[in-house]
Amino acid sequence: MKLGLVAIALAALLSSSLAALAQQQPSTVPDAPAPQAPPPLTGMDGTPITPGKGVANEPAAPSSSSATPNQQQAPASNQAPSTQGKDEIQATPPEMPAAGEGMAALTRFVLNVNFVEVPVSVKDSKGKLVAGLTFRDFKVYENDTREPLSLFTVDAAPLSIAFVIDQSLTSDVMAKVNNSLGAIQGALTPYDEAAVFSYSNGTQERTGFTGAQSNRLPAVLALTKETGSDMQVPFNSGPLAGCNIRENGNCVDPNLQPGRSTGSGSFITIPKEIHTLNDAILAAAKELSTRPKGRRRIIYVISDGKEYGSKATVKEVVRYLETNKIAVYGTLVGDSARWGEGYLSKFHLPFTMYDNVLYKYIAATGGTADSERGVDGIEKSYAKIAEEARNQYTLGYLSHESIYDGKYRKIDVRVDRPGLEVISKLGYYPSAQDSH
To answer: Are residues 350 and 311 in the same domain?
Structure first.
C-alpha cells in the first residue's frame, strides 16, 4: 500500500518537472548561420588576383556603359611626354642637401649607374663669381642630350690641392715666386690638405698630402725655393768654347769636336732647355687620385707653362685628369704673363719647345688661371683661385650612356641668364669608380 503511494508521488513530481522545462525552451528551432563569401585575393600591393590568371595588369573598366571609345582610351593618351633632350626648365627638383651636407651627399650616393659630378663656376662680365643661382638656371648636356639634375648643392667643398712649382724659371722670376710661397698657407682652410711637387729636369715630390694648416707645409715650401736657371750663352770658339782643352790641335773629348754638339765656326748649337711640366702634372694627378670622394681634387701650377723633355704627352695626361675628376688651376709667371703672350703661345713651331701648354690643361678640366708678374699679384692669385675652386656650384646627374664603353663623353653646361661665363670641364672618361 505504501509502495503504491510512493510511486504515485514520484510520477506526479516527474510530470511537473517536464512541464517546467518545456516552458523554458523556445517554441521554434533557430536557423543555421548563412554561408559567407571568402575575401578576395590580393597581392602585397593590394592588386586583385584572379585564380588561374594571376595579378590583373589591365585597368578597371569604366563604371558607365555609355563611355565613348575615345574616353576609354584616355588614360593611355594623357601621359605626360618626356622632356629629355628638350630645352625646357627642369620641373622636378634634384636632391638638394641641407646646408653643410652638400659635399657629404657625394660620399653616400648609392647607384647602379654612372653618376657624374660637374663642378661649375659662373662669372659676370667683370670676372667676379655669381652667387644665388638655383638648379632651374642650369642645363647640362652630355653628348648633346639633356640630362636632368639628380644633385644640386652650393656648399663649399674641402680641397685636396697639389701644388706644382716650376724651378726651371729664370732667376729673376724664380725670386718672385720664392717670395710669394709664404702666402700659400693663408689661402687654405683647416679642412683642406696640400701636397707639394717641383720640377725642372725631372719631377720631385717634396711632401705627400698633409694638413693645410700644419707646420709641415710652410717648412716644405721654404725648402722648395731655388735660384732658377738662366739661359746659357752659346760659345763655339775661344777659351769659353766647348772644346777649350786640345791636344795636337784636336779636342781631348771627341764629343766636343767642332761640328758636333757645340757647333763650329759656321753655326751655333743653342743649349736645350728642359721643362718637364707634363711629367710633374701626371705625378701630382697620381697622388690626387687616391684622395677620398667628397673632396675637390685640384692641381695648382705656378709656372710659365713651357714644356720640353717630358716622357708623358699632353693628351695622355689630360685623359688621366678627366678620368679621375681632377681640375688644373694655375698662376702664369714670367714670359707667359706678358699681355698677348698667351695667344701667341698657342702657335707651335715643329721641333721646338712648347711655350705654354698649361692653358690646355686648364681649358680641358674646367680650371682658371691668373697672369701675374709681381710678388703682390702672385700672392693674391693664390687666395683668389683657392676661393673660386672651393665655392663652386656642384651639379650631379645620371648619365644615359653605358658605364662600360670607356668612351669620351662631351659635357656642355649652360645658364639661362645673359652675359654670364660658365666654366666647367669639357668632358670626361668613365671610370669603374663611378659605378657602385
So the answer is: yes
Tens-binned pLDDT, residue by residue, of the chain (436 aa):
556 666 676 777 666 666 665 565 555 556 667 777 777 777 666 677 776 566 555 444 444 444 444 444 444 444 444 444 456 677 777 777 766 666 555 555 444 457 899 999 999 999 899 999 999 999 999 999 999 999 999 988 899 999 999 999 989 999 999 999 999 999 999 999 999 999 998 999 999 999 999 999 999 999 999 998 876 655 555 555 555 556 665 666 655 555 455 455 555 555 677 889 999 999 999 999 999 888 999 999 999 988 888 999 999 999 999 999 999 999 999 888 776 655 555 565 565 566 789 989 999 999 999 988 899 999 999 999 999 999 899 999 998 888 778 889 999 999 988 999 999 999 999 887 655 4
Asked whether residue 219 is domain-assigned, the answer is yes
User: Angle between the 277-288 and 314-323 helix axes, to the nearest 10 degrees?
Assistant: 20
Length of the chain: 436
Residue 25: other Cβ atoms inside 10 A: 8
Q: Which amino acid is at 324?
A: N
**Cell for 423?**
666654366
Residue 71 lies in a domain: no
pTM: 0.69
Q: Return the sign of the alpha-carbon dihedral for residues 83, 85, 86, 87.
A: positive
**Residue with C-alpha cell 711637387?**
197
Same domain, 320 and 414: no
Q: What DSSP string describes 49-110?
A: EETTTEE--SPPPPS-TT--HHHHTHHHH-SPPP-TTS-----S--B-PPTT-TGGGGGG--
Dist CA 91 CA 307 (whole Å): 48
In a domain, 29, yes or no: no
**Which cell numbers hold the place of 366?**
674646367
Rounded to 5°, the CA angle 281-287-290 comes to 135
Relative to beta strand 159-166, strand 296-303 is: parallel
For the beta carbon of residue 261, count every other beta carbon within 10 angstroms: 10
* Cα–Cα distance for residue pair 160/89, rounded to 1 Å: 34
Residues 219 and 202 in one domain: yes
Cα 148 from chain centroid (whole Å): 16
User: Residue 28 belongs to what H/E stretch?
Assistant: none
Number of independent structural domains in the chain = 2
